[in-house]
Amino acid sequence: MITNSITTYLKSFYLAAVSKVSKLSKNKHNNIIILLSFESTSYYFLEELYKIYGKRLVVIYTSNCTDLAKKFKLRGCQVYSLNSLSSLFTKIIPLLKGAKVIICDNYFPILGGIDFCKETKILQIWHANGAIKTFGLEANYAKHASDKNKDRYRQVYKKITDIVVSSSKMADIFKSSYQIDPNILKFGYPLTDYYLNEGTKKKMLQVKENINKKIILYAPTYREHSHSYIDLGYLSSNISDDSLLLVHPHPRDNVLKEQLKIYPSIKTHLNKFNLQETLFLTDVLITDYSSIPFEYSLANPDGNIVFFCPDLDNYKKEVGLQADFFMSEEYEIVENIEDVVEIINKQENTSLKHFNLIWNEYANGKAIKQLIEWIEVTYEI
């Protein structure tokens, strides 16, 4: 209890300090600011922004995006770590206060402490084009938070002016999760452009034709507690001989990484293909509460998703799930590994087209083009 009180006090002190410095910042600029915390999903959008804006692009990042930030620093962009106190007060806060467009891919507490000008647009692109887990004020941790902490969350959410979505479903989820009524940009999530690019699809289809194996990809979400529910030994030894199992651990999932060391024959990559490329090649995706199905359904609309959720009831209580997500009959939800193997070994035709109609309603391959047009119009106003 004492520890929680100290943490709450420190966070309040942090926001008060941010607020004080921001009030002293008066200079306007024409830079495009991106607050970055998800390297794997935001890199594609960042690359496209750089092609248009070059050194006007400013990257403000969390520690897990250090490698990507360094690449843009080498290209001449300003990059600043949110973990650096000196950068925070001398560079980051003034840049945020003076910006006309700020793009963020997550929840950033610093936004709650800045008194932005009326014309400043703060755009939430998020790090997924759908949601299985609850987030924002709908998340279980937020529901059980103190009133002071809830107020702090709201201070951040109410700064968001615009949100990019791939579906009306996701727009409604954002509104209820943030408890705001933002401007909804029906452009599609930026990364959906990659999966809808005709050149990319053609290239990966040619690769797929030369693979004589059924690709099974296990890609679970990250869990805060140290536990892995999958029995990789049983899974790898019981799938059919014409199948190839790939496992993609979350970058912070050290438990699954350790388990993989026991089974060196199980690959994490197919040749040199990254995760996005691998999704085009995957016949069956095994996951749980990860956002990867929303990308996979675009990469392979005829693919099959198996939701392996042995901790489903506990996860609902501890983290929280979108109320109706697992009510669909379009995909399999199982709680034991034997059922997973049985589904994989079936040779059934499937379709994720209805899934895409719900979650990728606005995705048309032009998300980034529309976003850049929106940025240009915003600067003209």
Which helices and strands, and how do they pair?
Elements: H1 2-24, E1 32-36, H2 39-53, E2 57-61, H3 66-74, E3 78-81, H4 85-97, E4 101-104, E5 121-124, H5 140-143, H6 147-157, E6 162-164, H7 168-178, E7 183-185, H8 192-196, H9 198-209, E8 214-218, H10 232-238, E9 243-247, H11 254-262, H12 275-281, E10 284-287, H13 292-299, E11 304-308, H14 312-318, E12 332-334, H15 337-345, H16 353-359, H17 367-380
Helix pairs in contact: 1-4
Keywords:
alpha/beta, Rossmann fold, five-stranded parallel sheet, 13% strand, teichoic acid biosynthesis
The CATH class of the largest domain is identified as: Alpha Beta
pLDDT below 50 for ≥5 consecutive residues: which ranges?
A: none
The CATH fourth-level homologous superfamily of the largest domain: CDP-glycerol glycerophosphotransferase, N-terminal domain
Largest sheet: 7 strands, parallel
Give helix and strand order, one letter per element, not per position.
HEHEHEHEEHHEHEHHEHEHHEHEHEHHH
- DSSP helix count? 17
Structural class: alpha/beta
Strands across the major sheet, in which order?
3-2-1-4-5-6-7
CATH third-tier fold name of the largest domain: Rossmann fold
> Beta-strand percentage?
5-15%
Radius of gyration, in Å, reads 22 Å
**Mean of residue pLDDT values:** 93
Question: Could you estimate the helical fraction of the residues in percent?
Answer: 40-55%
Shape: globular
Protein name: CDP-glycerol glycerophosphotransferase
Membrane topology: Peripheral membrane protein
InterPro entries: Glycerophosphate_synth (IPR007554), TagF_C (IPR043148), TagF_N (IPR043149), Teichoic_Acid_Biosynth (IPR051612)
Keywords: Cell membrane, Membrane, Teichoic acid biosynthesis, Transferase
